[in-house]
Design brief:
mainly alpha, 15 helices, globular
Length: 453
Amino acid sequence: MSEGTARGPRETLSLLDGSAIIIGMVIGVGIFATPSLVAQMAGDGPTYLLLWLLGGVLALVGALCYAELATRFPNAGGEYAFLSRAYGRQVGVLFAWARGSVIQTGAIALVAFVYGDYAQTIAPLGAYGPAMHAAIIIVVFTAINMAGTAFGKGTQQIFTTIDIAALAMVIAAALVFTANGGAPALAGEAPPVPRYDTLGLAMVFVLLTFGGWNEAAYISAELRDGRRNMVRVLTLSIVIVTAIYLMAAWSYLHVMGLSGVQKSNAIATDVTRVVFGAQGAVVMSALVCGAAVSTLNATIFTGARVYYALGRDLSGLKFFGIWSGQGENPRNAFLLQGAIALALVAWGAVSRDGFRTMVEYTSPVFWLFMTLTGVSLFVFRRRAPERGAYFRVPLYPLTPLVFIGMCLWMLYSSLVYTGAGALVGFAVLLLGLPLVFLSRAREQASGPAEIAQ
């Protein structure tokens, strides 16, 4: 390629760009799907709202830990760089394989399936319509991001605005409902739920809905004044998201009542239908499609960076370690990521439920490596305890211990409450062991190499 391999990431992302990417990653389709599941397990309205507040607090705890890691080691490879430095190149390589084949590509397919389900109601394409819509949207937004970082971040700002608009419509519906003197629709006593372990399971869905803030690690090398702005991006994004989620959760509860929230399969559409009628429901469905696109675009944007980092470090994969000077992005890595995501869409199309299959496939592997990333903070503090020119997580060691405890609980829950897809995810993880051996052979032959930026 004419661009060569000498170029690397430049600091092209502003505080606004980084915040839009992270907010777009977090505020996706989850808040339009998981509240009903959370309400079923909460048992009462105050507990239901408290769970969403707790989710924001735990997300902020994790974000503070990641802020220290990302400002210590600003790197386009994100967790790949952290794990490689903490535990050795082999663990980093295994994570890169897991992220590329399970975690990130599974997340892309998962969000694409949600988009496909809503798009199918607007433009039916037959029995496999949702999967076809999912494949089309992956191809389109992979191409947009390949066109250049400027296109990718500009598109993200547009669709993050759609995200906010969808939730603003939900909140506005609740305010209009109140102004008109309405009482909660479908009001009534909530059906009894078993209390054992239900709150813990509810947090699984809450934290799933808050997921995505960790993607900030993958833009750390491209963020202007990253040592200062990384903390700002993460803190600002989590605070904004938590406030929006609490208002949305209150709106659902106020308009539908707890029983109504528990029974709804499309809570945002049901709320707008109650207040604005059928036309409002159609508008909301279109906005939810936009929310799915927002998450998808941000996931595609950040996901390809780990293929780039791995390609820079392993000569056998150097084709994917090329940074395009024309587009200011890892163009070849986008191609690989898109191909794997499309293969997962094909698998999901023949399964019973593409969305559920992708959740089962990705969750346990994701939380395994998230736990190792949390522990790596202790490794780095022990190696270099002196104060450096980077952010230091407050209340150490309590803050990272809380984060690690959260990750272990999520790992346990994702194994207990998921099905065969989890086993497939772990099987694919093990298929990456040859790359680990390749990395070890390289180090034995030439000695350890620096982690590429």
